[in-house]
Amino acid sequence: MRRLFLVCFLFLILFISTACTVEEKGKTFSATIVQVVDGDTVKIKQDGKLVTIRILNIDTPETYREKQAYGEEAKQFAKKVLLNQKVTIELSAKENPYDRYGRLLAYIWVDEDTLYEEMVLQEGLARVAYLFEPDTKYAKRLYEAEEKARKAKRGVWSVDGYVTEEGFDMSVWLENAS
């Protein structure tokens, strides 16, 4: 019985300590981007630890598993705009602002008025994606930025059918590239 009590007590302490590390929903804080993984994923240092951030409401072409057209351009754009820059991180409004991979879900403000998401969308290097409540407060801005790139046939929008509801269709890209 004593052992069961000790185990339960340890689990309670572990639960409380991990609950304290979960960020407050919607909170903002300043951070410096220390690594760019790809166009929609970056890393910051927080309390001496490397924290991976999945940027909200956008999807950029892949650069790892399946290399997709404009993936490297999106990554280079993120490096140019974000790497070693002090930005404002605005956390997801979800109760738990982490995705299933343990990445912190957040918007990234380059300055007081400029969302990184808008910038990458206007360049035609991303699509609006994964737009779910409660993280929809910038939807209008993001769709407008995407529409500018789409109308100008910039980047991922330069080949009809490459951008789909599920992501990016390389077969369409390859068919039109030849």
Automatic annotation (TrEMBL):
GO terms for molecular function: endonuclease activity; hydrolase activity; nucleic acid binding. InterPro entries: SNase_OB-fold_sf, Staphylococal_nuclease_OB-fold, Thermonucl_AS. Keywords: Endonuclease, Hydrolase, Nuclease, Signal. Residues 27-159 form the TNase-like domain. Gene3D superfamilies: 2.40.50.90. Residues 1-19 form the signal peptide. SUPFAM superfamilies: Staphylococcal nuclease (SSF50199). PANTHER family: EBNA2 BINDING PROTEIN P100, SERINE_THREONINE-PROTEIN KINASE 31. This is Micrococcal nuclease. The lineage of its organism: Bacteria, Bacillati, Bacillota, Bacilli, Bacillales.
